[in-house]
Amino acid sequence: MRALCDYLDQLQGTLAKLPRQTIQEIAEILYKAYAEGQKVLLMGNGGSASTASHLACDLQKGIGSLKGKGFKALAITDSLPLLTAWGNDTAYDNIFVEQIQTWAQPGDIVIAISGSGNSPNILRGVQAAREKNAVTIGWAGFEGGKLKDLVDHCLVVPSDNMQRIEDIHLVIGHAIFTCLMSKILA
């Protein structure tokens, strides 16, 4: 019971320290992308990949089912054959680069989710997004890693615990979704 209470108390404490203004700014960037018909491409590894998939679903289906127009949202983590083909034929560090080069257009949004902020394939994907003149947003933890200085906008969860960081990244996704729904349905 002690471990459970400690974890939940620490999670609550970290949530209280989130930079709410940064979350609101990201929601505004996404609202503008929605209004202008831009794409949102999401990427991550492991738990961050599942957060990318979850947010893509919320943006496309969640908003679309209520408004009739969903985001053009795609988690580039979701095609296992494509990821393994690029990883096998080039290098694992390129699994997102090649997809960004295919899908991203100027003004699109690329959200890179990395607990450490140092995943080489995420950093290379962000570089490719910058070359395509996409708007880059990073979600990280710890101190933000290399991702923090590479993206246009970075949200750093103030924690050094990967599980709390991943939990809070999902909460942030739902908070942004809630902000978007409020604005879109207004």
Provide a concise account of the structure shown.
This protein has 186 residues and is α/β, with parallel strands linked by helices.
Task: Give the helices and strands, then pairings.
Blueprint: H1 2-16, H2 20-36, E1 39-44, H3 47-67, E2 72-75, H4 80-89, H5 97-103, E3 109-113, H6 120-131, E4 135-140, H7 147-150, E5 153-156, H8 162-184
Parallel strand pairs: 1-2, 1-3, 3-4, 4-5
Helix pairs in contact: 2-8, 3-8, 5-6
Description:
This protein has helices spanning 2-16, 20-36, 47-67, 80-89, 97-103, 120-131, 147-150, 162-184; strands at 39-44, 72-75, 109-113, 135-140, 153-156. The protein is an alpha/beta fold. It has one domain: Rossmann fold (3-Layer(aba) Sandwich), CATH 3.40.50.10490. A five-stranded parallel sheet has the order 2-1-3-4-5, sandwiched between helices. Helix 2 packs across helix 8. The longest helix has 23 residues, at 162-184. The termini are far apart.
